[in-house]
């Protein structure tokens, strides 16, 4: 029988007794476990409130674990009974222990948190979810903690704290703009800056909207709606509107930035993939003293006219090695929207890769046409 060890809180028992050592458990919970490769396990959380929080509303967190990990999870009081393939059971134990540690640290765990936790632990490279998900950036207007949910998001938030210009580049749904907005509101509340400036290029996403009614501000307002939505999620609508009226928070199209110097400001440029090279240079040179700029975008969703180079793509290539400028990259693994969004992004990426490979093959064939074979003369 393998060796036994005791950690803090909770209790885990394994039923299969194959003898290979197993160090997959790094428990913030109490564990007494054999160093084995299990096919079933029992985890005792020993705390009714923590168990309820871990299971979720109507056991939705446990049901999600079953669907995603291919294990069976049963609850008896404060005990969770796991069964399934050895590696899946081992991973689920690790997941449960990490989620328990987060709950005991005072942070609630929702269904989307479990989804992200599975991604983070599945990728490896992190010892504990607490290193990623604890330490909230801000509390939203509904008193919900806003915090990183992936390793890339954690690095992004840390980069914003440490650098004056940060690029957040990646697919839709990875939290680039949302976290930047949370950081901006946090800096404003802590009096590290005096105002927030939110900018976005007014570019139609592949469709003609025609002439819009109203003055210039009213015409560009539809393009800025996503920024208003994020802002209202960070603070009550009345307070946000008051800040906007007082000029503490300014939401404006990118064209309004020309000729200005932005001191003591937290500036966010959203949808930056739709800037031209000239617009990006103009925006970056607006930054004044004691200011930060966060530029977000997805280089795969450029809506510029054919032949126009994206300012975001160009800036990423020429600014990467400048001290004080950070470029944070996100992937489909960091998507925090509906789980199907991640699959949609992967499907489009596969399609684009296949298209590029086919084009490269056609170009190669066109540049090196097969040589015509010489025909032998036919004797009469």
UniProtKB/TrEMBL annotation:
Give every PhoH-like protein domain span: 145-349
Q: Where does it mainly reside? A: cytoplasm
Q: What is this protein called?
A: PhoH-like protein
Keyword annotations for this protein? ATP-binding, Cytoplasm, Nucleotide-binding
Q: Name one GO molecular function term.
A: ATP binding
User: Where's it found, cell-wise?
Assistant: Cytoplasm
| SUPFAM superfamilies reported for this sequence | P-loop containing nucleoside triphosphate hydrolases
Superkingdom classification of source: Bacteria
Annotated family: Belongs to the PhoH family.
Region annotation (Disordered) maps to 359-380
Organism per entry:
Melittangium boletus DSM 14713
For this record, an example GO cellular component is: cytosol
Query: Entry's Gene3D superfamilies?
Result: P-loop containing nucleotide triphosphate hydrolases
């Amino acid at each position: 029988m393998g060796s036994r060890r005791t950690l803090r809180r909770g209790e885990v028992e394994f039923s299969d007794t194959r003898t290979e050592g197993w160090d997959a458990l790094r428990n913030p919970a109490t564990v007494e476990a054999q160093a084995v490769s299990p096919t079933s396990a029992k985890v005792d959380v020993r705390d009714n409130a923590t168990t309820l929080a871990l299971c979720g509303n109507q056991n939705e967190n446990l049901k999600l674990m079953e669907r995603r990990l291919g294990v069976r999870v049963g609850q008896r009081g404060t005990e969770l009974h796991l069964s399934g393939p050895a590696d899946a059971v081992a991973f689920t134990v690790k997941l449960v222990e990490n989620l328990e540690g987060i709950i005991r640290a005072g942070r609630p765990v929702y269904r989307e948190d479990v989804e992200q936790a599975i991604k983070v632990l599945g990728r490896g490279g992190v010892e504990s979810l607490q290193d990623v998900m604890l330490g909230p950036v801000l509390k939203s207007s509904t008193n919900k903690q806003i915090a990183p949910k992936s390793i890339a998001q954690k690095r992004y938030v840390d980069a914003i704290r440490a650098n004056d210009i940060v690029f957040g580049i990646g697919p839709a749904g990875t939290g680039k703009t949302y976290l930047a907005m949370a950081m901006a509101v946090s800096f404003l509340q802590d009096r590290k800056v005096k105002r927030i400036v939110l900018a976005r290029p007014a570019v139609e996403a592949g469709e003609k909207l025609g002439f819009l009614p109203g003055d210039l501000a009213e015409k560009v307002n539809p393009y800025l709606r996503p920024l208003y939505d994020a802002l209202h999620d960070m603070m009550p609508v009345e307070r946000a509107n008051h800040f906007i009226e007082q000029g503490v928070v300014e939401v404006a199209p990118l064209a309004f930035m020309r000729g200005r110097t932005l001191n003591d400001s937290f500036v966010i440029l959203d949808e930056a993939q739709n800037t031209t090279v000239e617009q990006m240079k103009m925006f970056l040179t607006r930054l004044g003293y004691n200011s930060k700029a966060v530029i977000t975008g997805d280089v795969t969703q450029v809506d510029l006219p054919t032949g126009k180079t994206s300012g975001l793509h160009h800036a990423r290539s020429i600014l990467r090695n400048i001290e004080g400028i950070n470029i944070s990259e996100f992937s489909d693994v960091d998507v925090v929207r509906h789980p199907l969004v991640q699959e949609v992004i992967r499907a489009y990426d596969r399609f684009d890769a296949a298209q590029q490979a086919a084009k490269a093959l056609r170009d190669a064939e066109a540049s090196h046409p097969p040589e015509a074979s010489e025909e032998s003369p036919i004797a009469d």
